[in-house]
Amino acid sequence: MTTRILVTGGAGFIGSHYVRTLLGPDGPGDVRVTVLDALTYAGNPANLDAVRDHAGFSFVHGDICDARLAARLMAGHDQVVHFAAESHVDRSILGAAEFVRTNATGTQTLLDAALAAGVGTFVHVSTDEVYGSVPTGATPETAPLAPVSPYAASKASSDLIALSYHRTHGMDVRVTRCSNNYGHHHFPEKLIPRFVTTLLDGGTVPLFGDGLNVRDWLHIDDHVQGIELVRTAGTPGRVYNIGGGTELTNKELTGLLLDACGAGWDSVEYVEDRKGHDRRYCVDWSRIRDELGYRPRKDFATGLAETVAWYRENRAWWEPLLARAAL
Ligand code: NAD
Fold first, then answer.
1. pTM of the prediction?
2. Known catalytic residues?
3. Total tally of structural domains belonging to the chain
4. Which residue, 160, 41, 36, is CA-closest to 103?
5. What are the pocket residues of ligand 1 if the criterion is a CB atom closer than 6 Å to any ligand atom?
6. 140 located within any domain
7. Contact criterion met (CB below 8 Å) for 150 and 295
8. Residues of the chain with pLDDT under 70
9. Which atom of ligand 1 is found nearest the CA of 47?
10. Structural domain of 181
11. pLDDT, tens digit (0-9, with 9 covering 90-100), for 186-200
């Protein structure tokens, strides 16, 4: 039987990769996908060019905070995979209102509509940033939430709202919390695409503070693999961390990006640290490994080389976005 999946935020970086994968040759084959996306500065219709003519694909331009639209759409769908969000920490420091509106109110609006329509599984895609900074070790799903940035706080709010619909109404809500994603089609405001596009143009890249903040890097192929395992085999009401297994300081990552782009350290400018900059994120992803068989498959060196090559070869995709990426 065909499963009808509503994918919110499917014109963004990760959501579009999820949709291209679901409807691609390695996808499950028995799904129809509707993307609901407001096409904010981060949403890009070109990200969906590969699936636009697929018989199982449709696109709805709209806002997840629009309750009437959400109610109308939910009625025709069996499952929801919810990516739509304001996702850039630096923008949330400049102004948090849109983050609370989209990430918290938007998620609640979708949950209400899904509950009323009797939708089955609702996968809520979240982030490791909800746990806050972890000096050592790895954060399990049972750790308290301690978000620092307004972005992380709005995502933590959305996680709690989503889980409340499971606890209160018995809805089949599943939450994923992943580490930093990288890969192609990444909007050039985030560290890797920003550095790569700037270095390919011979520019100077900004490194926050002492450059020793640590992030775990997860390739979008592996994130999509994890989400699919949770959608198809996860347990209702459960949270699943999804990690990539490659921890690097921003300085180490910068060194790799300089090498890949043929630039030197004279292309790096140390800038004042981001306000409230979390020192380190690291999730314990043993639950999704042990329960669902998840393993990150993409070796980081290979994934990074492929990503840089994609940006070299796809200037037509990113050059028009540079003006929109500037804060
Ligand atoms: P993105 O910013 O690239 O894409 C977000 C998409 O949501 C865009 O297409 C945008 O148009 C859409 N959108 C925004 N507001 C909307 C609204 N009100 N109604 C409908 N659509 C709206 O984000 P991304 O990097 O692809 O992240 C996807 C999800 O994964 C987010 O929920 C984010 O919090 C989470 N996440 C991302 C990362 C990462 O490294 N990028 C890491 C952990 C978690």
1. 0.98
2. 128-129, 151
3. 1
4. 160
5. 8-9, 11-15, 37-40, 42-43, 63-65, 83-87, 102, 106, 125, 127, 155, 178, 180-181, 187
6. yes
7. no
8. none
9. 9
10. 3-187+217-245+276-298
11. 999 999 999 999 999
